[in-house]
Specification:
7-stranded mixed sheet; GlyRS-like_core; Glycine--tRNA ligase; tRNA-synt_gly; Herpes Virus-1; bis(5'-nucleosyl)-tetraphosphatase (asymmetrical) activity; alpha+beta; Rossmann fold; 518 residues; ATP binding; BirA Bifunctional Protein, domain 2
């Protein structure tokens, strides 16, 4: 099945089962804004909890913060967002649609990469176990030609971005005959910059109102609270401040479902270090964050680092952690060495000293910062994409049917277990309710008695429930139930008194946390 079709199915699945809804859908929706449904909010909260615990509980020198969305407008002047937070946009004159020029070029490169992957897949199928992929890529004329084309485009693209050369960005699009996905034409406007911040006003009257912004990132709330946290928490460098919060960007070319939205949620940590030690900590957090992602169980091969060739004006090192989405490898987290830019800027604009007195060095300095910034929504999408599976299985009569299952990690699944009475009579629902009452304070669970047991299993598979507890007539005789395991569909008979211990073992986050601790 084409990856585009998989993505369409995934989006439909999110709507059908209550994970994600279009915002204001009854009014035909609001573009690039989404609501998380009853199951989506559970998964999203589980992701946030796992991130926060991994950053704060597992690191004694990292603490939390929850800063306000509204900030003094000078904050964004100091950070550079007022003058430099722009995207390069280009319009197609025929379709009247607007695109990000850099995204069009990135998509072009991905299409050529897909041609290489197709050639490799064909050769692998032809030669079988004797196939040497590295040798094939280094000798096949079609692969070499496509790679040469990628390298040439990439070199021009990188230089244009670094030089802020908007004319060259358009020329790359023209030279490579990039067409509008809607009109199919190459009738492009010039590339121009567009600021992404949402502006609003604060004040009781129009004359007395002041211009403020919805924050485009959560990091600045950490920087302006650096001294507050450091002094009240008696923090010693190196230390970090972590927070989870909403951010807002006026994305003109918002697309790919919840991957790029106008209202989104970030999980960020700013780690303050001595100048000169930033690269050591940059490598440390790169390793730690990649381990966190891989611990989710979505496949180690689906993650990779992508080092930035164009660095932001404030950075001296930057890399992305990318995940293999249905539409290609895409960024889910950025790790940046931001130098002392942020604190120095806020010190200059506020007139307040934002320095740390280091008792070991007996001197004061503006700390350098290592940032880890991860999108909650993108992580959510990567997990849904990695978990969504279609399997052909046999029903109770041996007939083949398709099973849709979300193979989410048990510890993060929205519903941990479903309690299912085999029949709606003979005291089975009452016994099942007893089990629900026994376990509901410790686990998010569902009780379901509607339809056949097979249909109920399929419903739970589709929402990612790892365990189904079935209550039958034998339960009334010997106090045992059947546990059905989602991924294998195997069943095991256990005593009700042992259920809590069994489930504790299988859904405990401790296993994930231990993998992150050296």
């Amino acid at each position: 099945m084409a990856q585009e079709d998989v993505f369409k199915k995934l989006v439909a699945h999110c709507k059908e089962y209550g994970f994600v809804f279009q915002s204001s859908e009854i009014y035909d929706g609001l573009g690039a804004v989404y609501d998380y449904g009853q199951l989506g909010v559970e998964l999203k909260n589980n992701i946030k909890t796992f991130w926060y615990d991994a950053m704060v509980k597992l690191n004694e020198n990292v603490v939390g913060l929850d800063s306000a969305i509204f900030m003094h407008p000078t904050t964004w002047k100091a950070s550079g967002h007022v003058d430099a937070f722009n995207d390069p946009l280009i319009d197609n004159k025929d379709s009247k649609k607007r695109y990000r020029a850099d995204v069009l070029i990135e998509d072009l490169i991905q299409k050529i990469e897909a041609k290489i992957e197709k050639e490799v897949a064909k050769a692998k199928k032809r030669f079988g176990e004797s196939f040497d992929e590295d040798q094939f890529k280094s000798t096949n004329p079609r692969v070499l030609a496509n790679q040469e084309k990628i390298d040439a485009i990439h070199a021009r693209f990188t230089k244009a971005l670094n030089d802020n050369d908007l004319e060259e960005l358009k020329q790359i699009i023209v030279d490579n005959e990039v067409v509008c996905p809607i009109s199919g034409t190459k009738n492009w406007t010039d590339v121009r910059q567009f600021n992404l911040m949402f502006g609003t006003e604060m004040g009781s009257t129009a004359d007395g109102a002041s211009k403020i912004y919805l924050r485009p990132e959560t990091a600045q709330g950490i920087f302006v609270n650096f001294l507050n946290v450091q002094k009240t928490g008696r923090m010693k460098i190196p230390f970090g401040i972590a927070q989870i919060g909403k951010a807002f960007r006026n994305e003109i070319v918002a697309r790919q479902f919840i991957f790029r939205m106008r209202e989104f949620e970030q999980m960020e940590m700013q780690f303050f270090v001595r100048p000169g030690e930033e690269m050591k900590w940059f490598e440390y957090w790169k390793e730690f964050r990649m381990k966190w992602h891989k611990s989710l169980g979505m496949g180690d091969d689906n993650y990779r680092f992508h080092d930035h060739e164009k660095l932001a004006h404030y950075a001296n090192a930057a890399t992305d952690i990318e995940y293999r989405m249905p539409f290609g490898f895409k960024e889910v987290e950025g790790i940046h060495s931001r130098t002392d830019f942020d604190l120095s800027q806020h010190q200059e604009y506020s007139g307040k000293k934002l320095q740390y007195f280091d008792p070991e060095l007996n001197e004061s300095y503006v700390p350098y910062v290592i940032e880890t910034s991860i999108g909650v929504d993108r992580t959510f999408l990567s997990m849904m994409a990695g978990a969504y599976t279609e399997e052909e299985v046999a029903d109770s009569k041996g007939k083949k049917e398709m099973r849709v299952v979300l193979k989410l990690p048990a510890v993060l699944a929205p519903v941990k277990m479903a309690v299912l009475p085999l029949l709606k009579k003979d005291g089975l629902p009452e016994k099942a309710r007893e089990i629900v009452d026994q376990l509901k304070l410790d686990y998010n669970l569902q009780y379901d008695e509607k339809d056949s047991i097979g249909k109920r299993y399929r419903r739970q598979d589709a929402i990612g429930t790892p365990f189904c507890i079935t209550v039958d007539h034998q339960t009334l005789e010997d106090n045992t139930v059947t546990i059905r395991y989602r991924d294998t569909m195997e069943q095991e008979r256990v005593n009700i008194d042992n259920l809590e211990a069994i489930l504790d073992e299988k859904v405990s986050k401790k296993h994930l946390y231990k993998g992150l601790v050296k």
